[in-house]
Design brief:
Structural class: mainly alpha
Order of helices and strands: EHHEHEH
Helix content: 25-40%
Number of helices: 4
Number of strands: 3
Radius of gyration: 14 Å
Strand order of the largest sheet: 1-2-3
């Protein structure tokens, strides 16, 4: 298979998936700094949530240093070109979580 002549979009998930080894304890400063670096590098999509997605904060999945709303509110306004995405897993996240993320941008 060749990708020559095809457009490829990079969707970076390291901020979300990287929450697992950090036990979901990333600071807002760490999150925004990394997101800004990815943005400056030209990454068009950056996933920002708890490691288990929107609504993942729980006894089962771990309590983060900040809420999804706080992470999204901190990161979104600092980006110049990249867009933020959010993972929502059925049975963990809810429609209300999704609406919150949409309302934040």
């Amino acid at each position: 298979m060749t990708v020559k002549g095809k457009k490829i979009t990079v969707h970076d998930m390291t901020l979300r998936d990287g929450m697992h080894p950090k036990r979901h304890q990333m600071t807002l400063e760490q999150m925004t700094s990394i997101a800004q670096g990815l943005d400056a590098a030209g990454i068009p999509l950056i996933e920002v949530t708890h490691g288990d997605g929107l609504g993942g904060s729980s006894v089962n999945y771990g309590f983060p240093a900040h809420t999804d709303e706080e992470y999204l509110s901190a990161v979104i306004p600092t980006l110049k070109q990249a867009k933020v995405s959010a993972l929502l897993l059925p049975g963990i996240g809810t429609v209300d979580h999704l609406k919150m993320a949409r309302d934040l941008g």
